[in-house]
């Protein structure tokens, strides 16, 4: 009976040694996380400098402006080429040579 009690005590001691270390480590990590969370300030409690998505909205506006300018250039360029061709054809039809 004494031998069984000694073996049981040894098994309990080994199991305690296996679980005490990780238990202390997990406890320390949870304590540290709680301390860090207490030091943080919530961004919701103070006034925001800009609304959410402000920088994305600015990027969208810049891209929209760029696309608008390019579309306008694509619409105006063929008209300018057509005017140039018509003026050149008019001068050639009148018999005037264009000096370059």
Total number of helices:
2
The radius of gyration computed from the alpha-carbon positions, rounded to a whole number of angstroms, is: 41 Å
What fraction, in percent, of the residue positions are helical?
over 70%
| Helix/strand order, N-terminal first | HH
Q: What is the CA-CA span between the terminal residues? A: 120 Å
Helix/strand-derived category reads mainly alpha
- Strand residue percentage: under 5%
- Which stretches of 5+ consecutive residues score pLDDT under 50? none
Main sheet? none
Mind sketching the topology for me?
Layout: H1 2-39, H2 54-93
State the gist of this model:
The chain has 100 residues and is mainly α. The protein contains two helices and no strands. The longest helix is centred in the last third of the chain and has 40 residues, at 54-93.
Descriptive overview:
There is one protein chain. By secondary structure, the chain is mostly helical. 78% of the residues lie in helices and 0% in strands. The chain has 2 helices and no strands. The chain has helices at residues 2-39, 54-93. The protein is rod-shaped and about 130 Å long. The mean pLDDT is 84.
Quickly list its features.
100 residues; mainly alpha
